[in-house]
Amino acid sequence: LRSVLVRTTTRGEAVVVRVARGEVAAFHQLVAPLLRAGATTVAANVNDGEASRLLGPATFVLGGPERIVERIGAFDHPISPTAFFQTSPHMAQRLAEHVLAWLSPRPSDV
């Protein structure tokens, strides 16, 4: 085991990613308990590279949907287990509000 990543959304969804050098099969026994405990998605990532690299190239969703969903403003953003996404959705919402206020879009602009 190298690390465990947990990402939660403002909608109450959560993904748990186990990062290890291999042995994906050994993690299967924990999938059902993690889902029962409230995880939306459980995934395994294989990273047999440098220790400084958090994630490896292969990720397997072992339980739950392929993606969790974060809502920012009026838009839903599907997020895969290893995706890079804003870690503070509340600040992303505020940033979007400031940009929209600055742009002052009108219906005729679209």
Structural key phrases:
110 residues; four-stranded mixed β-sheet; two-stranded antiparallel ribbon; alpha+beta
Structure report:
This protein is of the alpha+beta class. The radius of gyration is 17 Å and the shape is elongated. 22% of the residues lie in helices and 32% in strands. A hairpin with a 2-residue loop joins strand 5 and strand 6.
Write the layout of secondary structure elements.
Blueprint: E1 3-8, E2 14-20, H1 28-36, E3 41-46, E4 58-63, E5 68-72, E6 75-79, H2 89-103
In short:
The chain has 2 helices and 6 strands. The protein is α+β, with helices and mostly antiparallel strands.
Major sheet: 4 strands, mixed
What is the share of helical residues?
Answer: 10-25%
For the residues shown, what is the average pLDDT? Answer: 91
- With strands numbered from the N-terminus, the spatial order across the biggest sheet is 1-2-3-4
Beta-strand content: 25-35%
Structural class: alpha+beta
How many strand units?
Answer: 6
Rg from alpha-carbon coordinates: 17 Å
Count of alpha/pi helices:
2
Distance between the termini: 50 Å
The run of helices and strands is EEHEEEEH
Q: What is the overall silhouette? A: elongated
Give the uncertain stretches in residue-range form. Answer: none
